Amino acid sequence: MKSYDVIIIGTGQATGTILGRLLELGRSVAIIESDKTGGSCVNWGCTPTKTLIASSRVAHVVHRAHEFGIGISKQSTNFPKVMERVNQIRNSGSEGFSEWLEKSVDYYRGFGSFIDPHTIAIDSGQQIHGEQIIIHTGTRSRAIDVEGIEKVDWLDNKGILALDSLPDHLMIIGGSYIALEFGQAFRRLGSRVTILESSPYLIPREDEEVSEIAREIVEEEGITCLTSASVKAVEKESDRQIKISVFHTEKDKSISGSHLLVAVGRIPNTDGLNLERAGVKTDKKGFIQVDDQCRTSVDHIFALGDVNGKGAFTHTSVHDGQVFLSMLNGGNRKISDRNITYALYIDPPLARVGMTEKQVRDAKIPYLVGRKEMASVSRAREKDETQGMIKVLVDKRDDTLLGAAVFGVGGDEVIGMLALLMQGELPYHVLQETVIPHPTVGELIPWVFDGLGEPSFEDE
Question: Residues 91-114: pLDDT tens digits?
């Protein structure tokens, strides 16, 4: 049996983060992957979805060209060409990562599972020994427990990126990130889109006003959104038609479409790893329990990325890798020290850092709130992209930032400025004293703090 200093199960973004340093330290490394190299981000997440969204944005801009004084005689969508571009970009990323791994480490293709705390069996028949083992197996789409679902060819985030023709009518069960990004993209490319969300709000984790803005944006583009919608059953009406039975507005309804995307959350890829043989503990949802340095219940076994339930983004996986490297170097970086930053890539994007207003109220923290509509931002008006708002929440006790949302053009880039303010635990006055170029969206951020005030009755 071959032995290694480190075995890594999975090739997500944390693997790329830590591998270079492990090799610099002279560690012998084995990597196991049962699917495409690069994990979700490269193959079915950030890279392909943002490439698809880029194509859909071009379609949207062309559609609006007359508003800018530009005449377009004809517009059409070549969906196979759109997907050819998506596949070219994601495949190049995966293939490049594969080449690096194959040159640098022993790269095992297959499914790995524990025999004991130090031994991994690969379904190709091999067994290998590791002094240290890192689990980086990510998550996958959660199925929905609805009558008839097993008889319908429903799509998840992987399946929808394998389509070779544009859906006539895409129905989506679930709101929030995956649903809204794919929904808007396919609508702009020419599909009819219906979104069914069980919560009263389209993005349940966000403040109500933010969720309502998102709803207005996608509905203006022709997407049908049904909230407080309870899906009762699905069935195949024909080879090209799926029917959903739903209870909505106190009535039973049915909706028919050509394709069904299920986007109701994700579950960890821990089943099949035989974690019990290694003594690795999970929570009730199957996520691996870790300490502040990503160490599991077994000292030499670590879990990085989505599989540990401490984050659900590429950047949190990368940070997990940085925390692990800090531990190797005797440092003290911790998972709990990070402020979660994320973006929802509809157009315009919604970017968030820290707490929502509801979370601040629930925590009973005394706070001030500041807002500015994107319509008042010169850069947004110049681009004629004035939907959205900027919102900041400040701790009354020390003037530090508790959370912020930048919902509008450039928000996904601007949020970094506010994330830095939070990470440094700096009072908001520091940002007000910073000179920021004009004309940008970011230059308005300091002025949002000028409008800080007590939460209004409507905010409560």
Answer: 999 999 999 999 999 999 999 999
Cα–Cα dist 304/325, whole Å: 11
Q: Name residue 151's amino acid.
A: K
Radius of gyration of the chain from its Cα atoms, rounded to whole angstroms: 24
How far apart CA 127 and CA 225 sit, in angstroms, is: 50
The pLDDT value recorded for residue 176 is 87
Distance from C-alpha of 309 to C-alpha of 269, rounded to nearest angstrom: 11
- Cβ–Cβ under 8 Å, residues 32 and 9: yes
Task: List the Cα angle 197/221/244 in 5-degree steps.
Answer: 35
Buried b (16+ CB within 10 A) or exposed e, 75-84: eebebeebbe
SS3 316: helix
Helix H or strand E encompassing 216 = helix 208-220
Q: Are strands 106-109 and 29-33 parallel, antiparallel or unpaired?
A: parallel
Burial class (CB in 10 A: 0-12, 13-18, 19+), 201: buried
- Encode burial over 298-319: b for 16+ CB neighbours within 10 A, e otherwise: beebbbbbbbbbbbbbbbbbbb
**pTM higher than 0.90, yes or no?**
yes
pLDDT of residue 73: 86
**DSSP strand pairing (169-173 vs 350-354):** unpaired
Structure confidence by residue, pLDDT tens digits, 282-308: 999 999 999 999 999 999 999 999 999
Q: Read off the amino acid at residue 441.
A: V
- Distances in Å between the Cα of 327 and the Cα atoms of 18, 315, 332, 436 are 12, 18, 7, 36
Instruction: For residues 250 and 243, give the distance between their C-alpha atoms in angstroms, rounded to a whole number.
Output: 19
